[in-house]
């Protein structure tokens, strides 16, 4: 059943690309990106027409849906409901009349869909069941995914406040948001350790990702703000990559 990893990967990547295009489009037409200090965005900068970015999002969601349909046909039709929920959540993060990302709920959905659903869902389509190891691994992955969003929103607090975008960072304020960022890596450490208890010591290799996050954490704790956090965002992304590879190797060794 290992061939199912390929369509599962396509679903994950296409959804990631799709939600980025969708956010670019929705934030752009709302004017939220007018005072953005982060990397260039297509609609907000005028580099692309809103309709083109919206259509790119729809194409990405279509690719995810096609790959998901293949998995549903070979594993379980219930996966269609999960996939539909993921696409709806991706669009309404910043789209629609009441985007939940503007209400401070983005981290919850990122944790669920980019952590639990992506990880445990992939495990389910390959193994045909959801285990405690998959759930714990999904929680650890969700912490890293949320850390990316938190640092992004920490950087954008001034612009989001001005635009009326009430992200969790805007609601909590600068200082508390920095504490949440650090706490996410502490939680990831706990989840990795719990996985080692359930599956075996090699799973502790996932802690390499937490170690790789130390430089970004130090920078955030130092009080760097604005454009200075762009490099932190890159550092968190790299730590997430280290975590994913090391954790996967550790879980593989623990299962052999």
Salient structural properties:
256 residues, mainly alpha, 2 domains, 12 helices, globular
SSE blueprint and pairings:
Layout: H1 5-30, H2 42-45, H3 50-74, H4 79-92, H5 106-127, H6 132-155, H7 157-163, H8 168-172, H9 174-199, H10 207-212, H11 214-221, H12 230-255
Helix pairs in contact: 1-3, 1-4, 1-5, 3-4, 5-6, 6-9, 6-12, 11-12
- Given as residue ranges, the uncertain stretches (5+ residues, pLDDT < 50) are none
Helix vs. strand class = mainly alpha
**Tally of distinct domains:** 2
Largest sheet report: none
Q: SSE order in H/E notation?
A: HHHHHHHHHHHH
| Radius of gyration, CA atoms, in whole angstroms | 18 Å
Strand portion: under 5%
Gap between N and C termini, in Å?
17 Å
Number of helices: 12
Number of strands: 0
Task: Please tell me the overall pLDDT.
Answer: 93
Give the overall silhouette. Answer: globular
Helix content: over 70%
Task: Report on this structure.
- With 256 residues, the chain is an all-alpha fold.
- It folds into 2 domains: 97 residues, no CATH class; 157 residues, no CATH class.
- Helices cover 75% and strands 0% of the residues.
- The protein is built from 12 helices and no strands.
- Helix 3 runs antiparallel to helix 4.
- The model has no long low-confidence stretch (mean pLDDT 93).
Structure summary:
The chain has 256 residues and is an all-alpha fold. The protein has helices at 5-30, 42-45, 50-74, 79-92, 106-127, 132-155, 157-163, 168-172, 174-199, 207-212, 214-221, 230-255. The longest helix is centred in the first third of the chain and has 26 residues, at 5-30.
